[in-house]
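User: I'm putting together notes for a lab meeting next week and I want to include a structural view of one of the chains we've been expressing. I don't have a solved structure, so I'd like a prediction I can at least talk through. The sequence is below, exactly as it appears in our construct file.
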Amino acid sequence: MTLSPAVLSNIAGYMSISLWIVVYTPQIWENYQLQSGEGLSVPFIVLWLLGDITNLFGGVLAKLLPTVIILAVYYTICDIILLIQVYYYRRHPSPAARTHVSTDDETTPLLPEPRQPKPLLPPTLEYPLLLSFVLLSGVGAWYLSDQDSVSIPENPEVELEWKSQLLGWASAVLYLGSRVPQIIHN
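Assistant: Thanks for the context. Below is the predicted structure for the 186-residue chain, given as structure tokens.
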């Protein structure tokens, strides 16, 4: 079997989707392990959430592929999970975060050492497994879904609709603007 440009494009698209799926997981997991969301700026997450919501509504209005819509729903849910984590851990700090060292010794740190998250797997296994997941899900999704029906349309009809375009641009501005509060927070 030959891998045409259309087939390679579909496989790369499925790999891209799997990358978009795994990108949030490490942050959510680290927040859970540290029992803290202090590393995240609330305005950053809120702007990201608004960006994902406008992306979702724009995708629905434009009647984009189901994978695009599902990914937008997934990202919106992840944004909400991050917000819940940040607010929950700020209201209910872990015992390590509540410990305050009181001493007259000037060399003693005022705050306890931050807990380091424990990785699920050692990095020598974690990274190759994540890369394998991305590669295999790209090929696997293509194989299971449309290996025989891959084609590139010769004259694709693109209908631009102003509402979905406006939502798309708003989403892009919100995504880009969200970085500013996070940079300031850092």
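A couple of points you could mention at the meeting. Residues 34 and 117 are 6 Å apart (CA to CA). Helices lie at 5-22, 25-34, 42-61, 66-91, 95-98, 123-145, 162-185.

User: Perfect, that's what I needed.
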